[in-house]
Amino acid sequence: MSSKFWKLGIIGWPLGYSLSPKMHAAALKAAGLQGEYKEYPVKPEDLERWLETEAPKLDGFNVTMPHKEAVFRWLASREGADPVARSIGAVNTVSVKDGKLIGHNSDAEGFWAPLKKRRSPFLLVKWRVLLLGAGGAARAIASVFSLRAAAREMAVWSRTFQSAERLVEETKKLRKEMPASAVKDLNSIQVEKFDVIVNATPSGMANEGEVPMAVTSRLRRGQVVYDLVYEPKETELILAAQKAGCKVITGDEMLAAQGAAAFEIWTKVPAAKVLPAMKKVLDDHFAARS
Ligand code: NAP
Question: Is 68 a catalytic residue?
Fold first, then answer.
């Protein structure tokens, strides 16, 4: 066992109940490393001071709401954001090397890893994607479909049409020929034709409403339905997708994969080595709830 003691953590405000400390404690153990993963509640007005004085003392940390964009801007102005974080415009993982902070975004890899597993290696057809939501997570997903998976078509719908239009514009900056469009009315599109449908809104969580019926009532066998929501794990969308014979990916898979990707960024331990331990923490958490 190496003698290094890894100082890891998460910043956000307020820091409610987060599964990250348990997930990363399990990852440290699975990797045979010594260390800690602590919660750092940092108010927006204290963020710069914390980044300047406290962050350099750590080896790495996650960034959660509401700091993802502010940390990106702070790091980008110091040439401290990697290409993935720059393509998304947000940072959820920071590595610290000799006191220098580098911003990353493991949501893109966390989203992509479970989806990649579902793609048959024999089926090299590019996907048609319907993306619900246009916030931070949707930006990471749009970057995956424009830069990594090169979707054949991407339709973006959000509660606020202007948000969807803005995301489409940003996506076209990443890949000029990206066939992306904003959807105003879900009833006006053919939901059945999409290969992958992603919910990147909080719809499905308590008090956040549900994914519109225009989607859930028109799912068909064979589609991949990917819900980022993980509380609850089985949302109305996932239940409707199972009933329609779709392949489903629940939000806990992305949660574990983005955590394992962050852990690899900090420690260089391959994500695959710690993923089962992180996934087990989530499985135990959801089993205790049901
Ligand atoms: P965000 O930046 O706040 O964006 C939220 C998006 O959803 C926006 O497009 C917003 O529309 C829309 N929206 C907000 N509340 C809504 C509601 N009640 N009904 C319908 N649409 C609504 O949030 P985010 O960081 O992208 O996260 C989105 C969801 O993904 C959250 O539930 C989060 O927990 C989940 N997530 C999961 C993972 C994972 O690892 N599984 C990772 C990241 C995020 P407007 O344009 O109108 O504001």
Answer: yes
